[in-house]
Amino acid sequence: MISSFVGSGLWRTARAYQIYGANTNVGKTVVSTILCKAIPSRQPDEKLWFLKPVSTGPLDDADDRHISRYAKGISTRCLYQFDDPVSPHLAARTKLCPPDSEILEAISKTLNNWAQQGPGIALVETAGGVLSPGPNGSLQADLYRPLRLPVVLVGDSRLGGVSASISAYESLSIRGYDVEGVIVFEDQYYQNHGYLRDFFHKKGVQLYTLPQPPGKGSRHDSIAALLDELKIKHQLRVERLDSMTTRAHETIWYPFTQHHGMTPKNITVIDSAHDDCFQTLKSDANSTIDQTSHAGSELLQPTFDGSASWWTQGLGHGNPELALTSAYAAGRYGHVMFAGNIHEPALTLAELLLDATQNPRLKKVFYTDNGSTGMEVAVKMALRAAAGRYGWDASAETVSIIGLKGSYHGDTIGVMDCSEPSTYNKRVEWYRGRGYWFDFPKVQMSKGIWSITIPEEMKASLGSDVEFPSLSAIFNLQARQDSKLAQKYRSYIKTTLDDLVAKQGMKFGALIIEPIILGAGGMLFSDPLFQQSLIQVIRENPRIFTQSSNPSPSSPSTNWSSLPIVFDEVFTGLYRLGRRTAASFLQTHPDIVVNAKLLTGGLVPLCTTLASNEIFQAFDSPHKHDALLHGHSYTANALGCSVAVSSVRTMMDMEDSGYWRGYSRDWDEQGTQQGESPVVDAGGPAVWSTWSQGLVRDLSFAAEVESIFALGTVLSITLKDSQGGGGYTSTAASGLQKQLTAGQNGFNVHSRVLGNVLYLMASVTSKAETLSRIEGLLRKALL
Amino acid sequence: MISSFVGSGLWRTARAYQIYGANTNVGKTVVSTILCKAIPSRQPDEKLWFLKPVSTGPLDDADDRHISRYAKGISTRCLYQFDDPVSPHLAARTKLCPPDSEILEAISKTLNNWAQQGPGIALVETAGGVLSPGPNGSLQADLYRPLRLPVVLVGDSRLGGVSASISAYESLSIRGYDVEGVIVFEDQYYQNHGYLRDFFHKKGVQLYTLPQPPGKGSRHDSIAALLDELKIKHQLRVERLDSMTTRAHETIWYPFTQHHGMTPKNITVIDSAHDDCFQTLKSDANSTIDQTSHAGSELLQPTFDGSASWWTQGLGHGNPELALTSAYAAGRYGHVMFAGNIHEPALTLAELLLDATQNPRLKKVFYTDNGSTGMEVAVKMALRAAAGRYGWDASAETVSIIGLKGSYHGDTIGVMDCSEPSTYNKRVEWYRGRGYWFDFPKVQMSKGIWSITIPEEMKASLGSDVEFPSLSAIFNLQARQDSKLAQKYRSYIKTTLDDLVAKQGMKFGALIIEPIILGAGGMLFSDPLFQQSLIQVIRENPRIFTQSSNPSPSSPSTNWSSLPIVFDEVFTGLYRLGRRTAASFLQTHPDIVVNAKLLTGGLVPLCTTLASNEIFQAFDSPHKHDALLHGHSYTANALGCSVAVSSVRTMMDMEDSGYWRGYSRDWDEQGTQQGESPVVDAGGPAVWSTWSQGLVRDLSFAAEVESIFALGTVLSITLKDSQGGGGYTSTAASGLQKQLTAGQNGFNVHSRVLGNVLYLMASVTSKAETLSRIEGLLRKALL
């Protein structure tokens, strides 16, 4: 995808349209000429501009010259001219051509300059058909997509033109374009216009016809009607955008949002999105760059999606590959109810995931719709297995889970119960926390130094904070296995668990953790050694959890020991932290793993719960009521599974092709100290980030920054909280958030804050050029 | 969409390909000729067939004649010939043309006859471009879609041909076609083949080129390679289909399924779906019609989706409109994180739903991913509102809900707790039912008589069963308001509630019901008067629920009284029962309503929880932690919301246009007795079904049938259970289910069973011809 920071061309008074042809030679330039001639009489207050971004063919024939010859008082411009009358990507071979992003910026600049001049209409003509390749080989409709100009489609009136016109319309639609009108020449023999009129009318698109040939004096009522409609549609679009915050404020009950004191100004209007950026409606409220706002300034601006849309975004917004994949699944299946049935996408995804995790324990895939429901399934699985082995009657006694403080597994009440009581979940009337939650040592960088910080209450047992030469060193678990700290961890964990079970009589049914980073809890970066130790102690000490003298009969190594280990990789899995699984950081094989978010690359909800065969067998019985009682209407829906197959495969291919090599090299070179060997596995260095190590180090010295870390696509900045405490109620990060929202150079950044933590998250496809712009903004704000 | 019962042409040895052209005049027939000439030498054991379903132009030019002239030993056929060399839909004007379904059946029959002859290849050539209209005006790719033949696409080598070829490919893809190879002529000037080769290679599709002009003696290595690949792809496809049940059995953990004793034979392979039918892989295990299975018989057969894919299916599988809508949203947005943002589809859907429900109480829309999570939100909403008004500390005391026996609200643990304890949910370790559940009188027809049956334990209070002249009469709540039964209902309900609160000290936070039909509980059809009475008694007696002398300060009529009333319309809403809302049957305005399933017309998961302003205000506070703590990653994802807008609007338009008039007339005429006026509202008769009243009446006399009912798209048949009891453990319905699976005349029926209840569910678009076939099968099985 083309990465760019142009705004989707929209102005209050000026308007720009992209003229696409259903095919080559359908009369685009004739239509443009007719439009240009008609505008001055129909809309006399409008200026007139014509832009041919890329032109092929002899200079004399150039469309912009043709236009300026026939339409008076028009400004015309051609940005790139190639002599060969062939497709631009061939013509460009013989001439140096700037990259797509530069072409886009040049168009954007031209249109914005024109828009400053007052009310007017700009026609931006394309070359060939909608999907003819541009000069660098990108399909034209992909190349111009970031601008997402409203489209006037010139249909094909010839034999076969119905097919060509509708196909062109579909290709534009799946790229998120709005076709505002279709023009086609009348052909009394083929009568395509008759068919197309009915067809497009049903789609809410009007068809306008032109007599053929369009000689002088021919009536152009149709063109006048088109011009009127374009004007009305523009007005309606702008009015609608203007009214959206008010109307959303009226009707939408936002997730996780306290509406008290909220006003429409707190809502951001998102007109579309592409690659890493939203196109957001500028408002005086949330933009300082638009102080001089006037009718000619752009209404939409690119806004970096700094939360990766709640950690889901992976392959870029508006990804045409995923769009086509989803449409194919919709067209081939719709939805197929899943109980007792199998379809290709669900089977392929299941096999792909079991293979991808490289965890010999995992054998079965259960589908649900989101992380919360997938974790509910994991809880049902784990508790049944444990209750079965230990002979507990869970309807009479409480079986609890072991977790970490600050954990979060979703908002359905069952999995809220897996998190420790807090001011938050205690407000949910049916919340009943059932577990014990360990506090844990955390990883961070401060003033250029990586360290493990030990919580105050644990210092008596674990000692004080420990410094490390690099992030890699912290992840070198093999080297750290025999350290003093590791011994302390194990002893602390064992003592605590012994006490909970033997003295306090608790019954535990599972260990449930988010490996490495606890996201919603505030980007809490756990010392991987602590998590690894927790699992080791549990697995190696089955007698903690039962009085039986022989609790764990000799069994295959893929069976769970002591307690089923559940990894909630909803956020951390599938390359979010730079690796395919978060489990691989811990060199541990969990018994149950839950994936969602990046699973579908940032398109639709889907979740998988992978489990071992032994967990699966815990539900085996001649009685139907012993089965795992779970299933949603759209379980394993073909669209979601298809998109997931495409996403996971794409990311695995990126890994195989070394797509992130530049990033990992940055972390490798600077992070590895003399004499220290970086933790590597077959796939390359274990620890890297899309955010540069230099940025992390520099920001760690900033006056406002308490600590910072980056891992994979995640950058987390903990700000000093003068009111103390940090946590969710803190407002320390809101100043930085505001500065990012204000932005600079025509773009800004959407970010999310968790108390005094501001994090940014890239897509796995984010390009270094994009991220360095964001880094620039961060440096400006903090240094 | 074209409704048809043809199989998707697939045979073990014979193969059929559809030759589509990227445009007209790209050389489809030349390619077909070359293929036909090449096949005998490359694949000498294969027979050769050529089918031109629809041909336009003078008879002499007809492609089938052309082919037979150049390729020897070939069987050719043209089904419909029109003389005018124009698009078939124009040519057909002058000649009588059979409907699309007949054309499809003729093609299917021809191909099947050929396939009987042994190994061979059939080429099915199309006319014009992929979306050129067929003789009845349907786009060709839509017309032939039920066959879903693998496609050989002939690309366009001319100027603009890159665009035309890729657009054509995209139009085929979004209709669920598999393009198995692309052929294009080499043009050294435009070099489309070079670009297209790279492009299609990335999609996993190989491009084959032909020299131009393809004179005698030109090398056809490329064609030989294509033929080899087609053969291999066919083998792989069949092998994969053959292996899918085994592999699914190995990897998939099915929802709601006891895997004990399950074998691969219990799994149905679904290759694709279209309109009301799946295309299922035939197997000796689940098909009796294929006893004489041999290599020439069809592998796939149309299977009516009798559970409407778990009650989700509304607008037909593989609906091209929904596919394009979903792709547009994917292309325009991808996903947009929703907290603090607004985008067009989410806002439009919220406004549409608030408007559509015609419930003045509902003002706010909360989005989640499925019925279960939407109900969790409803529970959180209702309990907070009640606990707030009554001053309960819900962390210390148990607040319960009032519900109905047999209710079901999803599988997340929180909403499982809203259902009464049973052998099922008690197996879930964390299940803790929190409520009181009323048993209730049920509607059914038996031996031609509609009646309300009173549960045994309630007879002392409510009297014995009551007969009614028609289903409409049961729904005439105005007439029934003052009946003896209504008085008994109210008195029984009030006494019961008084006892629970005053004597047993229970605290209630909500009434939660599935209006009219409790689906998962076994298609329990509640007497609407009982549900209406329950709500009336609760709302009119706020003092039951609190000791306060002034429990309900004077307040607007849109405020809740006594308890928030929650309607779970996940299954029953949005026309599933023939009306836009199930609430309208009860002439009641709930305070909270949950919709899902049909919301997206049978494509992707999405759920909305609509609530009153007063419920919303219960979360208003200066503290963030008082907000409604709920949100999923893909909350209000643009794809789901866009599809939902399209689905809901389509269904509302169907209602407005009287699409179901034929069905409602059937129920109106026969159901309304002399002197009784049917319950009507502005939109027409209140009570009707897509299943004929005659069928319901006739089956109600069947020896095996205990009772039956139909409402909207739902038909529910309760079978006599000789082992007694009925319920989930019954196997009484499995005999009928087997007979439907066996099918007849080349199609069969997928159905789901709930204990001794077998139900069938139509789409809202199901056509009378389709359903009458299914009715025929039911009559054959039961009468």
TrEMBL record, chains A, B:
Organism for this UniProt entry: Uncinocarpus reesii (strain UAMH 1704)
The keyword Signal belongs to this UniProt entry's keyword annotation: no
UniProt KW keywords: Aminotransferase, Pyridoxal phosphate, Transferase
Pfam family name, one: Aminotran_3
UniProt cross-references to PROSITE patterns, sorted A to Z: AA_TRANSFER_CLASS_3 (PS00600)
GO molecular function: adenosylmethionine-8-amino-7-oxononanoate transaminase activity; ATP binding; dethiobiotin synthase activity; magnesium ion binding; pyridoxal phosphate binding
Keyword Transferase listed: yes
Any one GO cellular component localisation term in the record: mitochondrion
Protein name (database record): Dethiobiotin synthase
